[in-house]
């Protein structure tokens, strides 16, 4: 059929799916609250975001943003140092905006979840126990007192788009909340430690890099089982297991 765009499955699992049809993204989520949070965050965020085209129960249609993602996990970032600095400046602008009205999960919930994930990784012998234990100890740094900001919450490298060294869009806001600013910086540089200095050149260097490294450990530990159970491989090049092994080797 002429003029019919191919339907591309961007991501799909039991909780949600994202489809692309031409320049339109359709997000289907079993939890309506995730889409409600995304729409609210898109309205509040002071940075470039996708346009909301329409919404129905459990479905949200968004326009594609121009530009190219900063990179992909496991591959060298094609973005310039200037593009990374622009991303840092955009994240700083977000973090300095008024807080959204909904909070993040409590620290106690996160701690319990992390302990369960570590126990599961050790029990299934997916990594040496000493690697898991060392990273669990590093992750403790993230539980320090911190001032909440307007945080994206899932600021993966594939969620920030740039063009001509300017940020053209930040996508996937369903986990936005009052959060830890260093979690966002860690998410964006997970598996791309070589880009951290460029990011901080735009964000500002008044951050504790050791806490960013601790967030790399925390995010990798708590995400690995979910990735495995949903068909992704955290042991791929540059993936979560590489991040955990690298942290252990630095000790």
TrEMBL record:
<dbReference type="Pfam" id="PF01636">
    <property type="entry name" value="APH"/>
</dbReference>
<dbReference type="InterPro" id="IPR051678">
    <property type="entry name" value="AGP_Transferase"/>
</dbReference>
<feature type="domain" description="Aminoglycoside phosphotransferase">
    <location>
        <begin position="40"/>
        <end position="208"/>
    </location>
</feature>
<dbReference type="InterPro" id="IPR011009">
    <property type="entry name" value="Kinase-like_dom_sf"/>
</dbReference>
<protein>
    <submittedName>
        <fullName>Phosphotransferase</fullName>
    </submittedName>
</protein>
<dbReference type="InterPro" id="IPR002575">
    <property type="entry name" value="Aminoglycoside_PTrfase"/>
</dbReference>
